[in-house]
Amino acid sequence: MNIYRVVERNQAANLLALQCLLRVGGLLGIGALSSVRKSLDTYLICLRHGTDYAKNVRVGDPPEQWVAGYADGMAEYVEKSWQDFRNNLQILLLTQDEALIWITKIDKALAADDSEPPGGQAAR
């Protein structure tokens, strides 16, 4: 193995690492923006529930009606929060899978033998 082959392998691995960084960074950015957007949606649900609750419940109403109105709104809030959590978890798992795929590609590029160029295609 000569020095040119080592440099060629390292350049290929560096380019793969850069591509990995860009893809994983993009997925994390999408996850962060999605999380902020979903948090704002959930906050709007809480505000909407608060206004509906204040509109429908009177001071003289029995406590059962207060609890029932509040529980209805909180059920919607909990459901929305759970969906947001699942979506964020799926984005993080997708990001982890993407990173593992790219790490495997980088390892293969660094471990390639002399008979195979860094791109993975046999020399012709």
What labels would you give this structure?
2 helices; 124 residues; 0% strand; mainly alpha; 83% helix
Notes on the protein architecture:
This protein is an all-alpha fold. It has one domain (3-111). 83% of the residues lie in helices and 0% in strands. It has 2 helices and no strands. It has helices spanning 3-56, 63-111. Helix 1 (3-56) packs antiparallel against helix 2 (63-111). The protein is rod-shaped, with a radius of gyration of 26 Å. The relative contact order is 0.16. The model has no long low-confidence stretch (mean pLDDT 82).
In brief:
This protein has 124 residues and is mostly helical. The protein has helices spanning 3-56, 63-111.
Q: Topology, pairings included?
A:
Layout: H1 3-56, H2 63-111
Helix pairs in contact: 1-2
Q: If you average the pLDDT, what whole number results?
A: 82
Secondary structure class reads mainly alpha
Q: How many helices in DSSP terms?
A: 2
Fraction of helical residues: over 70%
Radius of gyration: 26 Å
**What distance separates the N and C termini?**
18 Å
- Count all strands and give the number: 0
Task: Provide the domain count.
Answer: 1
Largest sheet: none
Q: What sort of overall outline do the alpha carbons produce when their principal axes are compared?
A: rod-shaped
Hey, roughly how much beta strand do the residues contain? under 5%
Secondary-structure element pattern, one letter each: HH
Low-confidence sequence ranges: none
